[in-house]
Structures are given as structure tokens and as C-alpha cells.
Design brief:
The chain is α+β, with helices and mostly antiparallel strands. It has 3 domains: 25-189; 207-358, no CATH class; 371-441, no CATH class. The protein is built from 10 helices and 13 strands. The chain is globular and about 65 Å long.
């Protein structure tokens, strides 16, 4: 072979090798991108599954303390909906429906059972001891499953084993024989159940209607709103500048400057929102001092009859919730939040959307039933610590007046139960969580 021919052959082979190597790199990059897409999708599915399992556990915890079938309907519908969401999330995971028979069966039956119980109990308005006991077992099992699944990590190299990992984790933490018996008991008790629409809890409903205080209020100028913000928060006149208009149910002027961000309603000139950026490094005041500071601030700016309800400290800021007290009725709908920095005691957060949306002059009807009659509707598993009257938002955007019972379980879990003053039905159940950081409800 001639030297020139040999050189051409080697050159051609080199080009082929380089081309093959380039193709290899391209395919490897494409494979890595595809792998990342899969990992992101699976991670999202696992996150959604964890969220739904937590919601199911929380709802079952509430259902345990509801003695009447008619009052269980809304929670039953939520359980059914969360079970469907969890099953959908599980199906997005690798082999999610192939091995996880126990989990799939649990998710399918827990909501169906609760709906069946509420339907069968509506006629006599009572939940039997057997049904209540099984509901308690479901809650305990759900909590164990939720905790077990939350500990599972998702890695690319264990995709084929992931579903087995779920089942193994459940078997490690759950008495599978008792679990199977419970599911069989549910299956025996199941009957045809109606299709119900899930409308969700009332936690976010205080902002759904038209804002009562600003809708027909007098329109204010930018200058007047800026002056209002400066006066309320003690800001010098040359600090804030106009940032633009803010649309929404409450139309606002936005101002900013010196780490402040403030929104003031165009109608009425009310402070809707204020946030001041702060980095709290040393905690110098406690929660009690912060709450007293917030109370003094509310009085200073002329917000009377506002009562502290709950508070929580996070990242050096204590946020206190205030509700309006109308006579003896505490209106949770009329909500204002105030944040206090735990180093300087400065007001760094103010939010009044709930108050501006719902506050109005009200004329309450006389309660049809006494607090003693309402108390008799509570679960026998609860010990009442205190009783008051409250106004809470409904799923439809309205308001309902209730007796608020602060109760305690045998396990020392504090629970708030709301019984309607007009019909003695259970309007809501909330779980109280206390910690060194404060008090919150779920």
C-alpha cells in the first residue's frame, strides 16, 4: 500500500473515531438531561404523595373526634379527594401501582369508608362505637404510613426497587395483619356512596369575597396614601417613593424605600400590607414582649377591640394574629397580622387584607341553643377546657356563628371544635400545635 493511501486511511479512521466520540458525548448529554427530567418528575410525585398522606392523616385525626354522621360529610369528602390525589401521585412514581398493593388499597378505601360512615349515620345522626374505633385505627395507621413514606429517598439507581421499598417500609412500621384486617373490615362495611364535591377547608376563604371596607370608600390620592404610610410607621417624608399601581380585589398604590415595601388601598387609604426587610441575628426580646409591642402598636394606630389569637416566631420575627371582638363574639374573619423583630422590637410586618375584606357592622341573632346543649354534641373522647363564641368563615364565602370549644384528648392533644349556635352541627375542627415558637392551628 502506498504511503499516501495509508495516510488517507488513517485520516479517515480518525475522522470516524472523532465523529463517533462526538456522537457519544451528544447522546450522553441527552441521556443526562433525560435522567434529570425523570428525577424531577419522580421527585415531584413523591412530594405530592407525602403532602396528600399528611393531609389524610390530619383529616382522620379530626374525624376521630366528630360523633355525628352528618357533621362528618365534609371531612369524608376531603378524605376521598385526598386519597384520589395520593393515588395519582403514586402512579407517577416508578412501578408505583405494581407492588404497593397495601398502600393502594388503603388510599382507595379510607375515603370510601368515611363517606359510607357519614351516609349510614345520617339517619340516626350517630357514629357507632365500632365505626369510631375503626376510624381511630385508620388514623393511627395513616400516621405510621405517612411517617414511613416521608423517610423514603428517591435515587436514580433504585427506581426499579422503589415500589418494593414502599411496601417494605410499610411492613417494617405497620402491623400488616391488623392493617389487612382493618382494610377487610372497611371493605365489608362499604356500600354505595354519593358523589360529593370537595370544596376544601375554610382556611383561605376570608379573602374570596369583595372587600367590604374599601368597595364604596372614598378614593384617595397617591400623596395622601403615601402620607398615611409615613404616619402609621413613623417613616420620614423623603424615604418612600411611588412604585406603581397594584391591581386585584383591593386596588392599591405601592411604595418602597429604605427596605420598606408598602401597599395602601386607593379606596379609603387603608394600609393593606407592609414589609420591612430585616436580618435578625441576636434574639433580645421574647414572645410575650413582642406580643405586647404589637398590641400597643394596634392601639396607637386606632385599631380598637382587636384581640390576640395566635402567634408564631420564625427567622427572628414574631407574627401575631389579631381578630376583631364584636361584643362577646370573636370574629376570626376580621384578621390582622403584625410582625415584630425579636432583636429591636420594631414592627416589620403588617397585613390587613382579611380585616378590610370582612369587617362590617353586624347584628347577631340570638343563639337558638345554649352552650350546654352545644357541649353535649361533642365527642365523649374530649375534655372541654374553655368555651367562647366565635364567627368563622364558611366554604361558600359566608360567615357562621359558633360556640368555640377548646378541648383536650386523652393524649393531651388540644383541639378546637366549632358547633353552630343555630343548628348544633359541627362546623369545623382544628388541631392546636404548641411549641417554643408559638401556637398555630391546622
Amino acid at each position: 500500500m502506498k504511503k499516501r493511501t495509508l495516510i488517507r486511511a488513517f485520516s479517515f479512521m480518525a475522522v470516524l473515531i472523532l465523529a463517533a466520540f462526538g456522537l457519544f458525548l451528544k447522546e450522553r448529554s441527552r441521556s443526562n438531561k433525560f435522567k434529570l427530567m425523570i428525577e424531577n418528575e419522580y421527585s415531584s410525585g413523591l412530594k405530592d404523595l407525602n403532602s396528600s398522606l399528611n393531609n389524610i392523616t390530619e383529616t382522620l385525626n379530626k374525624a376521630v373526634y366528630i360523633p355525628n354522621g352528618s357533621d362528618l360529610v365534609s371531612l369524608s369528602t376531603k378524605l376521598y379527594a385526598e386519597g384520589e390525589i395520593a393515588k395519582e401521585s403514586l402512579s407517577r412514581l416508578p412501578n408505583g401501582t405494581k407492588y404497593s398493593s397495601n398502600l393502594n388499597k388503603f388510599l382507595s378505601q379510607v375515603g370510601n369508608y368515611a363517606i359510607s360512615v357519614s351516609k349510614s349515620a345520617v339517619e340516626n345522626d350517630q357514629i357507632t362505637d365500632e365505626q369510631s374505633e375503626l376510624m381511630t385505627k385508620l388514623y393511627q395507621t395513616s400516621k405510621t404510613i405517612s411517617d414511613a413514606v416521608s423517610e423514603i429517598g428517591l435515587k436514580y439507581d433504585d427506581y426499579n426497587e422503589f415500589a418494593k421499598l414502599i411496601d417494605n417500609k410499610i411492613k417494617e412500621n405497620v402491623d400488616t395483619d391488623a392493617f389487612a384486617d382493618s382494610l377487610d373490615s372497611i371493605e365489608e362495611d362499604l356500600s354505595d356512596y354519593p358523589t360529593l364535591i370537595y370544596d376544601g377547608p375554610f382556611s383561605d376563604h376570608i379573602l374570596q369575597k369583595e372587600p367590604l371596607m374599601v368597595t364604596n370608600a372614598t378614593t384617595k390620592s397617591k400623596e395622601a396614601c403615601k402620607e398615611k404610610a409615613e404616619k402609621v410607621f413613623g417613616i420620614k417624608s423623603n424615604v418612600l417613593s411611588f412604585d406603581g399601581n397594584q391591581n386585584g380585589k383591593i386596588e392599591c398604590y405601592r411604595f418602597s424605600g429604605n427596605k420598606y415595601s408598602i401597599s395602601v388601598s386607593k379606596n379609603g387609604g387603608y394600609i393593606v400590607y407592609m414589609r420591612k426587610e430585616c436580618d435578625v441575628e441576636d434574639i433580645k426580646i421574647d414572645g410575650l414582649k413582642a406580643r405586647n409591642t404589637a398590641k400597643e402598636f394596634m392601639k396607637k394606630i386606632g385599631l380598637e377591640n382587636m384581640v390576640e389569637t395566635y402567634y408564631f416566631s420564625d427567622e427572628g420575627v414574631c407574627v401575631i394574629n389579631f381578630a376583631y371582638l364584636d361584643g362577646q363574639t370573636l370574629c376570626y374573619t376580621d384578621l390582622i397580622k403584625v410582625g415584630v423583630a425579636l432583636d429591636s422590637g420594631e414592627i416589620v410586618l403588617f397585613e390587613s387584607s382579611g380585616y378590610l375584606t370582612n369587617h362590617t357592622e353586624r347584628s347577631f341573632e340570638t343563639a337558638k341553643y345554649s352552650s350546654e346543649e352545644a357541649r353535649a354534641k361533642l365527642s365523649k373522647k374530649l375534655t372541654v377546657k374553655s368555651t367562647s363564641i366565635a364567627l368563622i368563615p364558611t366554604d361558600s364565602g359566608g360567615e357562621v356563628r359558633c360556640y368555640e370549644f377548646l378541648c383536650e384528648t386523652d393524649e393531651k392533644q388540644e383541639i378546637l371544635v366549632y358547633i353552630g349556635v343555630k343548628d348544633l352541627s359541627t362546623k369545623n375542627v382544628l388541631l392546636l400545635q404548641k411549641s417554643d415558637a408559638g401556637i398555630v392551628v391546622k
